[in-house]
Amino acid sequence: MVKHLTDEQLVEQATGNNPEAFGEIVKRWERKIFALCFGMLNREDEAKDAAQETFIAAFRNLKNFRGDAKVSSWLHRIAVNQCLTIKRRNKSRSESFIDDDESSNENFFVAPAKTSPSRTTEQNERLKYIRRAVSSLPPELRQVVVMKEFEDMTFQEIAEVLEIPLSTVKSRLYTALKQLRMKLEKNHLEIV
Predict the structure, then answer these.
(1) Are residues 169 and 176 in contact, defined by beta-carbon separation less than 8 angstroms?
(2) Single pTM value for the model
């Protein structure tokens, strides 16, 4: 039974022609990979495409997985690359997709349940400003914010995924949070 195997053992079995093993990898990581893609692209349709392409690329490259990093880091790296490819492809379109389909972004930041209508409206406005601020960050800063703040990845995991030094991850996060704070202060909001 493949459910009890580690990710690394699943990759080993998948390279040995066990399709059920790769299916288990997809089951384990599809939500996290989609969330990362959605955080970077801000469009559900593009995030779905990027997540799907991530797993297709991973499957095609299973034999190249050397085990130098964790399977999760490897998948995250592929996903980041897929998102960057989509962003490059869409470069001719407007860089800010936040207003394109507001309803698809509703779940990007989830508000607590059971709030008053006025509190909900206030929170929705606040979330709208936060989404705009995050979306306006340059891609290299946005991806670090999404991975750290929304994916709960460690600095070390982010460094491995992005293949950059740990100090660069920390400085990018510091810069991103500083920029977010300045943008939100203009709208009299605070980062909590």
Answers:
(1) no
(2) 0.66
- Placement of tokens 């095609």 in the chain: 60
18: left (phi over 0), alpha (psi -120 to 50) or beta: beta
Domain encompassing residue 115 = 2-186
Residue 84 lies in a domain: yes
C-beta of residue 104 within 8 angstroms of C-beta of residue 58: no
State in Å, rounded, how far the first CA of the chain is from the last one: 44
The number of folded domains in the chain is: 1
**Domain CATH number, residue 154:** 1.10.1740.10
pLDDT in tens, 40-67: 888 899 999 999 999 999 999 888 888 7
In a domain, 191, yes or no: no
- For 164, counting Cβ atoms within 10 Å of its Cβ (0-12 exposed, 13-18 middle, 19+ buried), the class is middle
